Amino acid sequence: MTRHFLRLSDLTKDELDALLKRAVHLKARQKRGIPYRPLIGKTLGLVFEKASTRTRLSFEAGMSQLGGYSIFISPKDSQMGRGEPIKDTARVMSRYLDAVVIRTFAHSIVAEFARYSDIPVINGLTDSHHPCQVLADLMTIIEKKGGYDGMSVCWIGDGNNMANSWIEAASILGFELRLACPEGYRPDEAFFKEAASRPGAKIRMCDDAVEAAKDAQALNTDVWASMGQEAESTERRKAFAGYQINEAVLKIAAKDAIVLHCLPAHRGEEITEEVMEGRQSVVWDQAENRLHAQKAVLEFLLTKGDERQ
Question: Which CATH number does the domain housing residue 53 bear?
Answer without folding.
Answer: 3.40.50.1370
